[in-house]
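Consider a concrete sample entry:
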Amino acid sequence: MTVLKTSMRNFFAHKGRMALSAVAVLLSVAFVCGTLVFTDTMNTTFDNLFQATASDVQVSAKEASDTGETTSRTGRPPVMPASVVGEVRGAEGVQKAEGTVFSTSATVVDHDLDKLSPSSGAPTIVGSWNGNDARTMKITSGTAPKGPGQVMVDADTVDKHHLEIGDEIGIITVVGTHHARVSGVATFTVTNPGAAIFYLDTKTAQQTLIGRTGVYTNVNVTAAKGVTDARLKRNVIAALGHGYKVQTAKEVAAANQKQLQSMLNVMKYAMLGFAGIAFLVGIFLIINTFSMLVAQRTREIGLMRAIGSSRKQVNRSVLVEALLLGVIGSVLGVGAGVGIAVGLMKLMGTMGMHLSTDDLTVAWTTPALGLLLGVVVTVLAAYLPARRAGKVSPMAALRDAHAPADARAGVVRALIGLVLTGGGVASLFVAANADEAKAGSGWLGLGVVLTLVGFVVIGPLLAGGLVRVLGLAMLRIFGPVGRMAERNALRNPRRTGATGAALMIGLALVACLSVVGSSMVASATDELDKTVGTDFIVQSDVEGGVIKPQAVRAVKNTPGLERVTEYKLLDATLTTPDGKVSEKEEINAADPTYAQDVRTKTVAGNLADAYRPDSMSVFEGYADKHGITLGSTVSVHFKGGSTAKLTVRAITSDEAVVDKGAMYASISTVAKYVPAKNMPLDLLVFATAEHGQQDAAYKALKTALHKDPSVTVRDQTDYKKALKDQIGQLLNMIYGLLALAIIVAVLGVVNTLALSVVERTREIGLMRAIGLSRRQLRRMIRLESVVIAVFGALLGLGLGMGWGATAQKLLALEGLKVLDIPWPTITAVFVGSAFVGLFAALVPAFRAGRMNVLNAIATD
């Protein structure tokens, strides 16, 4: 009880000093809990949607996906004859069976040719209005579609794009462009996460999406009373045979959830990883806080020992304070986490993904995990200072002394740090000289961990040297004030090292990712210059999208073009000369001019020969694995087609970056074995202008394709810019998440300075008494803060660039051979670190300047 009272008294006596440490715990716990609540809420939203929209049993074509996705490389969804509906109705236990048509391969535009697609990446669905959809959607305005000139639109899309009843829209499919006017608005009775949905009448949907009537993509089956879904499924299979895909509502929902889960897990674990980094940074803050509090209470601790307190009691007293800090910070963090989750939901709403707070899900495991993490991390971080406090001798009460420094421990720490750093550098060296990227990545990971831990451990040793150098470069110009700031930073190298290390971690990751991202862009740009010999690249902006035939015709009819090359991907099963069967392979089918458009290095033969009749190419690794040489025959069974015997005329190098690992054949060869109805649409189209006509051809292509906004034409400059922007957006998102760790590190600098000012109260009073002005005092503290921040930045940027350079060596094994250091970014981060130091010192410097001189001198 005495220990608890002492801990409570000390905790609340230093509540201001504990606040910043509590904020660090709060932020870290909030990020963890916010991530878990957000992803759980998304799971709940989609679970409710999948369960509400699935019929008891769903019948679809055999080649349809388990999720019911109705897109394909042909641009047409897989279909079944309308007679299936009658057969299903005749099955035992069927109350109702209704055929429907849906596709996610359509592009919908308004009268200004602006896309009416979700910005969140959710699908655009065009289909027939049916009874199953009527269960989860309510017509809130107008009427359902009743003819070819009418379309009903979901309410979210209407609101987002400001549509009104009577507005004309265009639905672009492989069949052509269908025009209709909005006849009604349907509102979801469950949460719609963001899909844009357009309903036509059944006959119009068939004609628009498939090009013919009398077919369906799905049959929704409702069970009679008392019939389970599993039993109904067995009865339907008995009636239809095994030529169709038959799934219960639970199976369809599970397949959809599995597909969604892979995306959510990436998001979830990435965000938790950044929260872990923030926790790691917070550990340094907590260690510093308790180390300084213990140092300031040396006399008090000594007196406690002198009147009979044991080492364990003193140790326990400090740990109880840490426990209080952890509990308070974690409880607040859990509450803040729910707020962060709601904020993320609102943010996703601005991006087009609608998540309702009605589905907000806070599982009991979330606050439990948040509290456990926060408390455990805080107590563990406080263990070393608590142990140090227990070692304070009773004799310390008789003198004004801090906890004794252990010189031997410092030497051991330095030796351990040097060994760890040396091991990390050796691991990075092995990674940089690895022959295979997979093997090298393991060494890279080990090197990153060892060098990071090593730099943390030898932080005090590095602080002693680097701060002196920084003092010469930055502080001496400020005269005596600068020299005092330097001495203050050097006074406790362990504290300076720990504070700098907290900032180092976040900046090291920033520098590493900047080097990797910049090198990827530079390498890809260099490779494009070397290999791409065409002027324009036409592709669909929809993820995994294909180019509709009318767009290809528009390209071919564009004046000023010398050649146009089509490029497709086909799924195939290969049987090689060694008798082995390779399933799920892809054949890159293109026009013979592709060999001019993309200059691919070969190790045997000429790539142009692979486009001869009944010929193909394979890549080097595949050839070596299966004993394939020039002239070998490979049996290729095309999905949706027949089997071809193709002669290998070229073997491409594994060093290629563009189409690495591709196997080529001509479109004319493939067309002999794949019926036209099953032939995939073009994934890319390459166009080369006539000599001197590049600008005119570029403008003409833009004009020719403006009617289909899902298709984009880019010249090489546009393509490089798009690549740079894509990587830049990813890096900016990562930098945003790393900002949490940097914020915690800044709090650490603030806390260190604030406690340092309290620790030096008498000293500050004496300096003020002998003539140091308030302005000089504040400058001294600001300069001390700047030099600590710059010290951390130098460590972080140096370490991060080393990691990034090593990672680039591994990327070079995959063909990305250019190392590019983004000096503008590195310089901006370095300069920004100095401003971070200035910002962190504002409050401590202001408080120091307001000290009463006499009271400060009289401080015990």
The CA atoms of residues 454 and 666 lie 56 Å apart. The mean pLDDT is 84.
